[in-house]
Amino acid sequence: MQASQKPRLWDASDRFYSLPAKEHESSHWSPVTNLDHLSCSDEGSQGNCMLESSSGSAPYHVNGSSSTVRFSPDESPTSKRASVPDSCAQDHLNDLELKVRELETIMLGPSSDMAHSGDINFLVGSGQMSQEAETWNELMEIISRRDLKEILHACAKAVEDNDTSRFEWLVSELRPMVSVSGDPIQRLSAYMLEGLIARLACSGSSIYKALKCKEPAGAELLSYMHILYEICPYFKFGYVSANGAIAEAVKDENIIHIIDFQIGQGSQWITLIQALAARPGGPPCIRITGIDDSGSAYARGGGLEIVGQRLSRLAEACRVPFQFHACGIPASEVEIGHLPIRAGEVIAVNFPLMLHHIPDESVCPQNHRDRLIRMAKSLSPKVVTLVEQESNTNTAPFLSRFLETLNYYLAIFESIDVALSREQKERVNVEQHCLARDIVNLIACEGIERVERHELLGKWRLRFTMAGFSPYPLSSFVNATIRSLLLSYCDRYTLEEKDGALYLGWMNRPLVASCAWR
Questions:
Q1: Long-range contacts of 130-134 (CB under 8 A, 24+ apart)
Q2: Is there a contact between 431 and 187 (Cβ–Cβ < 8 Å)?
């Protein structure tokens, strides 16, 4: 497998979230977001918002709250409030009086009339404890259980309620529990916590741009993509299922035009060109129109001419007549005039894990998502292939979207965990540069700035049906080919066929869906 292959399932395009410069070998998630350095303005057409991350002893503030949690160079939390000790969670639970005093200071201010010391038991026993104290008691119990999913949910609820004091305290407790070198839930929690901090720190369209990222060099980024392509079957599943549908639909055609709405490195078409070269009676003439994205261009270190040259050399070696047309514009801007359609050719359209990046009616009145589907229908294609993440995050409210993201990406991180050891720096780089920034985008952003907008296959079916398409069931041959592919991976991957579509999952959690239309 060539290193040029670009997986597109979590194709970050120009969205690659980067950890701060501190070495990944640290035992805990190193960045500490200093919200003292956050500034937002609406100057110009795009707001300015700087969200700086640093390691060491940088303070952590949320929205001007007087409470400050600091992280020492060894990454253990310290506090300007004596009421947040450095003891374990069980000690917090046993020290109710200390926590009530903390509650008193944060919620009611230093001049509170709330009872102290000897009155606490009376208040609890008589049912007169304030609602705030009961809430904090519940939070202390959550912390004592050390269930990261439960704590993350409590953090997200605090963000949804805009309760900065509660969120700040939860962050101080959660920080020592997360680590980019830990188990899957610890690693995922580190990135999701950063997303929550970004969301609470600065609302609006500036959040995503404000995340200070340092992208690796293009060659390094491509190598991380290639590692992810090799260790997990998600991308190969998409390639094989789409290519199988196309090969079957055009098996008797002599002139084939494939329109790929996100060609990336062009790697998907290597096996299809090779397969068509061996077709009885000789290969067809193949034309490919490749539509680009900025992330792919950055990773490969140049424009689409690189892809065209690579595929042309392959086709020449296979003695397949071949032409390549470069369309170097974002998919959302493609119009029918950008596509060089010729009479007498059979058209196949490929939507490879990219339509969820296209804004729909919930984001902009132009509804480019449905517009592209209708435009594909107007080309009278022989087949249209769709591969998408099986996740519901497009129009879901924040808390539901947060939990969906948590459960979905936890399955992804678990599948990576069986392929790369936790000590390998490559695993940190893969998760950081190929997954993390998309996770942050899902949590921190809204409106046009939230580019990760996944839908379940049921919703895609509705969109394609409304555009006039009918299902083109994937064949049993494609199913068998993918099952053979999965034999090379962990037996916890699952494959399900339903209503002519295929679902690839982890531990029975569907993660990627593939289908075809005509």
A1: 132/103, 132/107, 132/108, 133/100, 133/103
A2: yes
Contacts of 436 (CB under 8 A, 6+ apart): 17, 19, 191, 194
pTM: 0.77
Task: Give the DSSP H/E element, type plus range, for residue 508.
Answer: none
Using CA atoms, how far residue 479 sits from 17, 92, 241, 242, 501, in Å, is 35, 54, 8, 11, 10
Query: Which range, of 162-166, 252-256, 492-496, averages the lowest pLDDT?
Result: 162-166
- The pLDDT score that the predictor gives to residue 301 is 75
CA distance 307 to 326: 9
Q: What angle do CA 481, 240, 293 make, to 5 degrees?
A: 170
End-to-end CA distance of the chain: 31
Give me the phi and psi of 85, to 5 degrees please: -75, 170
Q: For residue 297, what pLDDT is reported?
A: 73
- Beta strand 493-498 with 48-50 is unpaired
Identity of residue 274: Q
Question: 388 has which bridge partners?
Answer: 513
Query: pLDDT tens across 89-133, in order?
Result: 445 445 545 554 554 454 444 444 444 444 445 445 545 457 777
Among the residue ranges 76-80, 115-119, 215-219, 364-368, the one predicted with the least confidence is: 76-80
For 282-323, write each residue's pLDDT tens digit: 999 999 999 987 667 776 778 899 999 999 999 999 999 999
CB 188 within 8 A of CB 30: no
**Gap between the Cα atoms of 491 and 493, Å rounded:** 5
Distance CA 350, CA 514 (A): 11
Q: Which is it for strands 346-352 and 383-389: parallel, antiparallel or unpaired?
A: parallel
Amino acid of residue 141: E
| Closest alpha carbon to 510 in 435, 457, 434, 432 | 457
CB 175 within 8 A of CB 72: no
Average model confidence (pLDDT) for the chain?
79
Give the closest residue to 242 by CA, choosing from 225, 267, 277: 267
List Cβ neighbours of 465 (8 Å cut-off, separation of 6 or more). Answer: none
- CA neighbor of 466 nearest in space, from 387, 401, 373: 373
For residue 7, pLDDT beyond 60 = no
Question: What ranges make up the beta strands (E) of 312-392?
Answer: 322-327, 346-352, 383-389
Percent of the chain with pLDDT over 70: 72
Name the 3-class secondary structure at 287. strand
Amino acid, res. 411: A
350 and 388 in contact (C-beta within 8 Å)? Answer: no
